[in-house]
Design goal:
about 190 residues, Rossmann fold, 7-stranded mixed sheet, two-stranded antiparallel sheet, 6 helices, 9 strands
């Protein structure tokens, strides 16, 4: 299949599908993190939606869409822009998955199809991730992992893996490798 991984610069999902023999490409405004520009398009993904893709997995920017940000959005009077999310979801591509955190009700997004967790796919992390699916089956768990919790001195509770993840948006937004493999293994068989 010809597969577009929209708004991805890590190459994790792209590379998982390429290992399965698919013609997978990532597209993002940022350069490819691994300097593997041969299969990365550094451009606005909206310019590339009509290039004959069989499947798209999209990761639109979630900063203002997610539930965790809703109170700050109100306080700062942020106007929530869902246009990229909706253009990806409504693209003329047969199979689509859009991935984002649990959305704020104020964003007004359609209901997601399922919620997945990194610990469903072999990672000691908890991070609710919603999937909006079009012509794709729900992603099945591949390796249930028991999660370990750490409570900090100020009483915050984290899963061990999440606690040791660097506290920056780039690190925290990368797709977990186990989830990328699950997508490639399960959806890569669909033709």
């Amino acid at each position: 299949m010809k597969i577009l991984i929209a708004c991805e610069c890590s190459g994790r999902i792209r590379d998982a599908f390429r290992k399965k023999g698919h013609n997978a490409w990532s597209c993002d405004l940022k350069p490819d993190e691994n300097n593997n520009s041969e299969y990365h398009i550094q451009d606005n993904v909206l310019k590339h939606l009509d290039e004959g893709w069989d499947m798209m997995i999209g990761h639109p920017v979630c900063t203002y869409l997610c539930r965790n940000r809703s109170q700050l959005n109100k306080k700062q009077k942020v106007k929530i822009d869902t246009s990229l999310f909706m253009e990806l979801l409504n693209a003329d591509i047969e199979k689509i998955c859009i991935e984002n955190p649990v959305p704020s009700l104020a964003a007004g997004l359609p209901k997601y199809t399922q919620i997945i967790q990194p610990y469903h796919h072999g990672h000691d992390h908890s991070k609710k991730t919603c999937l909006w699916l079009k012509n794709l089956p729900v992603l099945k768990p591949t390796k249930m992992t028991k999660i370990t919790y750490i409570t900090t001195d100020n009483g915050h509770r984290y899963t061990k893996g999440w606690y040791y993840t660097p506290r920056n948006s780039t690190e925290r937004s990368r797709t977990f490798k186990g989830i990328a493999r699950a997508m490639a293994n399960q959806w890569g068989k669909l033709n």
